């Protein structure tokens, strides 16, 4: 049987995600961000709710991306996620994209010219942001064109790079409806951005989310709920350069900007430069919020939920892969668990995220 991997945030899960799962073949394994997501912000609802949403709409197994995989630039995010899915036995990767290219050919180009392409990246001017550098690399070596705001396409290229040489078939699916950052309401498929923005509009949410009641009844958070805690961390930390990926320049910019801004978004605007993109600054602020430091990724894979089919697949893997279904005295990943505890501070009704939590189980669809 085909085993398909999907890398996702489901922030929150919407009809476009349901469509993607429907297009995926065979057993469907989702590697999903935990309580903080790739662009550097808290997930609107917790990881257990989002895992349940996915399982109720076609996923067979949902595993968690460790914090230092989930909250990373596209290349690191993709590499870490593909590594986990590869260990879980996927033979193809399905993903949504604004531009359906032959990503398999692109993966082959990278596997054949990796050293040359990475050397090219290193040779580019330092004043370019990393996304700008990678775009130039793909344009130069694979003839890929970039038009406007296409984050899923950029992730697709990162997936191609991560899958190079692993024998994983890439299955891009044309993104349906609104663009990733679209805030529009009059569309066939609303984006997660639009749903987060219009979350108070119950009719809108119900129209574009298959699990709208589950979403609407769950505690919801945003950066605003962590603003004061973030400021406290910035103002009291003796040396921000101890935090993951914070250099002296960023530390100084953040310390200076925090005194004259009144929201996280204002802080991002003030700290960001051509070199330090807003997404990178948001990730840096997330690292500061949770006190992230550089550390090794866990060997074990944490399971958030499964169907009967997914559970059977897990049983077949247990001899070759260390699986964690319940976190006890021994941590699965200390940093992810620390991030979970910080996440819980964002809303008084957020349930326990770690201790005693067992995988969500759903009946096979």
UniProtKB/TrEMBL annotation:
GO biological process, one term: tRNA modification
GO molecular function, one term: ligase activity, forming carbon-nitrogen bonds
Transmembrane helix recorded as keyword: no
Enzyme Commission designation: 6.3.4.-
Subcellular compartments: Cytoplasm
Gene3D superfamilies: HUPs
Catalytically driven reaction(s): cytidine(34) in elongator tRNA(Met) + acetate + ATP = N(4)-acetylcytidine(34) in elongator tRNA(Met) + AMP + diphosphate
Gene Ontology cellular component annotations, sorted alphabetically: cytoplasm
Any Pfam family the entry gives: HIGH_NTase1
Positions with a binding annotation for ATP: 7-20, 96, 152, 175
Domain of life according to the entry: Bacteria
Keywords: ATP-binding, Cytoplasm, Ligase, Nucleotide-binding, RNA-binding, Transferase, tRNA processing, tRNA-binding
Keyword tRNA-binding: yes
Leading EC class: ligase
Family: Belongs to the TmcAL family.
Described purpose of this protein according to its UniProt entry: Catalyzes the formation of N(4)-acetylcytidine (ac(4)C) at the wobble position of elongator tRNA(Met), using acetate and ATP as substrates. First activates an acetate ion to form acetyladenylate (Ac-AMP) and then transfers the acetyl group to tRNA to form ac(4)C34.
Name of this protein: tRNA(Met) cytidine acetate ligase
Encoding gene (name): tmcAL
């Amino acid at each position: 049987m085909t085993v398909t991997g999907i890398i996702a945030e489901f922030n929150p899960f919407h009809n476009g995600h349901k469509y993607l799962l429907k297009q995926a073949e065979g057993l469907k394994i989702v590697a999903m961000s935990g309580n903080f997501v790739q662009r550097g912000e808290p997930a609107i609802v917790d990881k257990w709710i989002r895992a349940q949403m996915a399982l109720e709409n076609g996923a067979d197994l949902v595993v968690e991306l460790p914090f230092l995989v989930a909250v990373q630039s596209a290349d690191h995010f993709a590499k870490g996620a593909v590594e986990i899915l590869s260990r879980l036995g996927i033979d193809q990767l399905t993903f949504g994209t604004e531009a359906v290219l032959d990503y398999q050919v692109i993966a082959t180009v990278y596997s054949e010219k990796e050293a040359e392409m990475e050397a090219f990246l290193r040779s580019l001017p330092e004043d370019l942001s990393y996304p700008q550098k990678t775009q130039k690399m793909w344009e130069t070596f694979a003839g890929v064109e970039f038009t406007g705001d296409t984050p899923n396409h950029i992730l697709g290229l990162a997936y191609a790079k991560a899958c190079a040489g692993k024998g994983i078939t890439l299955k891009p699916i044309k993104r349906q409806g609104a663009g990733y950052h679209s805030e529009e309401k009059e569309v066939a498929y609303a984006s997660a951005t639009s749903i987060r923005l219009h979350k108070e509009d119950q009719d809108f949410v119900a129209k574009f989310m298959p699990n709208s009641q589950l979403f609407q009844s769950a505690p919801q958070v945003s950066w605003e709920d962590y603003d004061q805690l973030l400021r406290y961390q910035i103002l009291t930390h003796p040396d921000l350069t101890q935090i993951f990926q914070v250099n002296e320049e960023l530390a100084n910019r953040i310390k200076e900007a925090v005194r004259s801004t009144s929201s996280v978004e204002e802080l991002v605007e003030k700290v960001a430069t051509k070199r330090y993109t807003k997404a990178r600054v948001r990730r840096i602020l997330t690292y500061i919020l949770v006190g992230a430091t550089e550390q090794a990724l866990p060997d074990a894979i944490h399971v958030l939920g499964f169907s009967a089919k997914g559970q059977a697949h897990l049983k077949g893997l247990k001899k070759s892969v260390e699986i964690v279904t319940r976190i006890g005295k021994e941590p699965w990943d200390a940093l992810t668990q620390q991030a979970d505890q910080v996440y819980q501070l964002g809303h008084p009704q957020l349930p326990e995220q770690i201790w005693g939590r067992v995988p969500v189980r759903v009946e096979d669809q």
